[in-house]
Amino acid sequence: MKQMIIEGNNILSGTIEIGGAKNSAVALIPASILANGTSVIENVPNISDRDALLDILNILNCESNLKQDKLTIDTTKLKNSVIEESLSSRMRASYYFMGALLGREKFVEIYIPGGCNIGTRPIDIHLDGFRALGANITIEGNKYTLKADKLIGTDIYLKFPSVGATINIILAAVLAEGKTIIHNAAKEIEIVNVVDYLITMGANIEGAGTNEITITGVNELHGGKISVLPDRIEAGTYIILGALCGKDLKISNIIPEHLEALTSKLKEMGVNLIINKDNIIVNKVNELKPINIKTLIYPGFPTDIGQPMSVLLTKGNGTSLFEETIWENRMGHVPSLNKMGANIKVNGMNAIINGPTKLKGCEVIATDLRGGAALVIAGLAAEGTTIITDVEHILRGYENIKGKLTNVGAKIELKEI
Ligand code: EPZ
C-alpha cells in the first residue's frame, strides 16, 4: 500500500503540464479492438488504469507497444478470451471491452467492472443498448456473456445520458448492419475524442457531442490514429490548487473551453485567473466569496471536479452549497476534510460548507480517485504535515502527481508501507 506525506502551506509557482484525459484514454484503448490492424494513440497518460487495460489487451493476444506517451496496438492476432475478474475489476472502464468485442467478435465473456465506490454504478443502460442491437446476455454471478448471430442497427433511447453507455453502444454499433441512432446520448467531450478515433478507422458516425448520435454500420475497420485530448479533470484539479496556494501557477496544455463550467464558478468566487489559448495562470487570493455548485452532465459543472472544489469552498467567506446530482456517494472525503479542520455537513448527496476555515495537516485516508485528489490539495493548503493512505486510488487518474507538484514547489513524498 502506498502513502503520500505532504508538508503543507507552501506557495506553488511554475508550470504544470496537463496529460491526456484518463476518461478518453480508457475508452480509446479498448476501442482499438474494433480495427483489424495496427492503430496508434498519442498523448496517452501514464496512469495505472492504462496499465490495467494493456494487461487485458495482452490476454486478448493483441500486441501493444508503448514509447513514452505513444501507444501502438496491433489486433491482427486477436484471440477472444474470458476477461477474468482479477483484470476487469481493476477499473470501471474494462466494460468498454464489452462493446468492442461484441462489435468485432459478436461474443464476449467478461466479469463485472470495478471503479471508485461513488455509488452503485449499474450498467443496465449499456446492457439494454446491446440487447436492442440483437445481443443475447447471460449473467451468472459476476460473469457476463454477450453473444449475437448478428447486430442490427436500431433506435436506442438512453434513460440517462450515460457517458459509458453512449461510448459502449457506439463501439457495438460501428460494425452492425444498418443505422443506429442513440437518443439522449451523453455529450461529454471525451466521447467526441473516441468517435474521432473510430472515424480514422473508417467508421461512419455523426452527431458526437450532441444528444443524438447516428452510427451507420460498415463491414470492417482498419487501423486508426488519434491523440488523447487534454485531461480537463486533471487540469481543473490543479487550477483549484492554484486558487489555494498558487503564485502565477500556470496550468498548460489545456483546452480552456472544456473548463468553462469551472472557470466561471471560480471567477464568481473571486479567484484571480488569466485564461490564455492553451493555458490558465492562477493566483491565490485572500478573500473568496461563498458560492453554490451543482454538478451536472456536460457541459455543466463536472461531477469529477466537485470533490476538489469542495476544498476551495472551505475558504469561502460564508456558507457554500455543493450539490452532487450524478453519483450517490461523492462525499467519502468529507470526514477527512473535517478532521483537518473544515466545517462541512453532508446531507444526502449534498454538502453544506461553512468557511473560511483553516486546514491543519493530519492522517487521512483516500476513499476514491477524486476524493483522494481533494485530500492532496487540502494537504498542500494546510498547515503542517498530512499523511494520506490508500493513494493507489489517486494514482489511477493523476499521472506523475508527485513529480508535477514537486516541480512547482510542493513538498511531497510517496512511500510504500
Ligand atoms: C464516466 O463514468 C467517468 N468515468 C466518470 O469519471 C464520470 O464521473 C462520469 O462519466 C460522469 O461524467 C469514465 O469515463 C471511466 P455514467 P460512467 O454512465 O460512464 C448512472 C472519474 O473520477 N448509470 O455517465 O460510469 C450512474 O449510476 C470517474 O474519472 C446507470 O444508472 O458514468 C450514474 O448515476 C468517476 N446505468 C449516472 O448514470 C448505467 O448503465 C452517470 O453515469 C450507467 C450509468
Describe the structure.
The chain is built from 14 helices and 23 strands. The chain is an alpha+beta fold. It has a 4-stranded mixed beta sheet. Strand 7 and strand 8 (143-147) form a beta hairpin. Helix 4 packs parallel to helix 6 (163-173) and helix 10 packs parallel to helix 12. It is elongated and about 60 Å long. 51% of the residues are buried. Ligand EPZ binds next to helix 1, helix 5, helix 6, helix 10 and helix 12. Ligand EPZ binds at residues 22-23, 26, 92-93, 116, 119, 121-126, 160, 162-165, 186, 303-304, 326-327, 369-370, 397.
Give the overall silhouette.
elongated
Number of helices: 14
Radius of gyration: 21 Å
Instruction: Tell me the distance between the termini.
Output: 6 Å
Order of neighbouring strands in the sheet with most strands: 21-22-1-23
Residues in helices, as a percent range = 25-40%
In this entry the ligands are: ligand EPZ
Q: How big a fraction of the residues is strand?
A: 25-35%
Which class do the helix and strand fractions yield? alpha+beta
What does the largest sheet look like?
4 strands, mixed
